[in-house]
Amino acid sequence: MTQQMIDQAKSVMRKNDRGSYTVPTHGLYPFQWNWDSALCALGFAHFDEPRAWTEIETLFAHQWEDGMVPHIIFHQMDDGYFPGPDVWATGRTVPTSGITQPPVAGFAARRIFDRARDKALAASKARALLPRIHAWHQWFFANRDPKGTGLVAIIHPWESGRDNSVDWDAAFERVPTEGVQPFTRRDTSHANPAHRPTDEQYKRYIWLVQKFRSLGWDNAQLHDASPFQIVDPGFNAILIRSCVDLADLAETLGESEIATQSRAMANKAIAAMESLWSNQHGQYLCYDRAIGALVDSASIGGILAAFAPIPGARAKAISDRIEVLAKSCNYLVPSHDPTAPEFDALRYWRGPIWLIVNYMIADGLERAGRTVMADRINRDCLRLIEQSGFAEYYGAINAEACGGDAFTWTAAMVIEILSAQEIAA
Ligand code: GLC
Questions:
Q1: Which atom of ligand 1 is nearest to the CA of 163?
Q2: pLDDT score of 421
Q3: Cβ–Cβ under 8 Å, residues 253 and 127
């Protein structure tokens, strides 16, 4: 059973492999996506280590000169996706989008390095990637935390990776739609429109892209110019964890300056995370920097915060919070509280489950000694696969397969989870 599932997962990954990068899934997402790639490298590492390193290298080959790593790299033209390179107009030789995504590559590089069978290959690959990943982390604090609070803001919902979470609704109201050029969406021809964002949301996504484009994609200006500035605890937790992991990796490789700088960024951010804690909700919340207030939306972003080395009491409270969520769904962890009025069982990031998010939450809880909950989340991942195959995401009540199918990072997470179990056994 286990081997059969691993074999199926491998064949999904092979199917979406384009040689030096993978697409998230055929059709719906025909390019390279940033955090998809970093997470899928974890899957490759179990059966093809060189290919795992190549995935991350290809991503960083398209890093901008200022350190930013874009959220999409348009390696080959494909008009099945909107917005394409002409809308972004970032002026790169190989076109890319102009915003970023959760910086999970630092975590992935360290994990692949630690487990490597080919130690020499791992050392040379990690050594070359180290300064690039570090430059990306530094870019975040320089450009997305101009006042030096310790936490970074996203300036477009797509940066969060949780594209149309309830967390953005109130702030998104302040994003205008006037002047948005007419467009035709492509996503709704590949996936059920009822599972996707609404047209109104899409206009706002595009308004922000047009705004940033009008500023020449100058990152020194974009943060302050954006009406949308949200400090997402999940996003910051990923950045913190990657800084910590990069610091450890740098120490191992004798790069003490990178190690010291990475650890300093992480420590400052961990302390600042406390400002996002809500006793009332028993989890972290987003902070709307444009208006200076916490966002009253208890979504999975504040639970994903467990991926960072948060204080033990916070990790326990998050585990308790998940226990409460479990009472209103059959599978963990829903992307929004099923008892909240905005919960939407099958719509993108407003209720359903993503295996990658589950994996990061479970990993963090395990590190914090919350192994019972971590195991339960991992078991639910496998139950979902058994029920509904390698989907993009799943209903938390009935395990419906949603979005695209034959999805790369879902497959990679299955290989990760099953292989880790084997290693532990
Ligand atoms: C969607 C997700 C995003 C992901 C992308 C490709 O846009 O919201 O997180 O990176 O699909 O899988």
A1: 8
A2: 79
A3: yes
Per-residue pLDDT, 1: 66
Q: Is 168 in the pocket of ligand 1 (CB under 6 A)?
A: no
- The pLDDT of residue 397 is 98
Contact between 342 and 350 under an 8 Å Cβ cutoff? The reply is yes
- pLDDT value of residue 321: 98
Give the pLDDT confidence score for residue 187 in this predicted structure. 87
d(CA 323, CA 313): 15
Give the pLDDT score at 146: 98
Q: Backbone dihedral region of 143: left (phi > 0), alpha (psi from -120 to 50 degrees) or beta? A: alpha
CB 191 within 8 A of CB 403: yes
Atom of ligand 1 nearest to the CA of 71: 10
For ligand 1, atom 3, the nearest C-alpha belongs to: 161
Give the Cα separation of 376 and 371 in Å (integer): 8
CA of 278 to the centre of ligand 1 (A): 28
Q: Is the pTM of this model over 0.85?
A: yes
Q: Residue ranges of the chain with pLDDT lower than 70?
A: 1, 423-425
Task: Write out the E strands in 68-183.
Answer: 72-73
Instruction: Give 371-414 pLDDT, tens digit per residue.
Output: 999 999 999 999 999 999 999 999 999 999 999 999 999 999 99
Give helix 408-424 / helix 355-367 axis angle, nearest 10°: 30
Does the C-beta of 161 come closer than 6 Å to ligand 1?
Answer: yes
Ligand 1 atom closest to Cα of residue 349:
8
CB 410 within 8 A of CB 394: no
- How far, in Å, is the centroid of ligand 1 from the Cα of 425? 33
Task: Tell me what pLDDT residue 196 has.
Answer: 85
* Domains of the chain by start residue, with CATH: 2-424 (1.50.10.10)
Q: Is the CB of 24 under 6 A from ligand 1?
A: yes
Pick left, alpha or beta for residue 104 (phi over 0 → left; psi -120 to 50 → alpha; otherwise beta). alpha
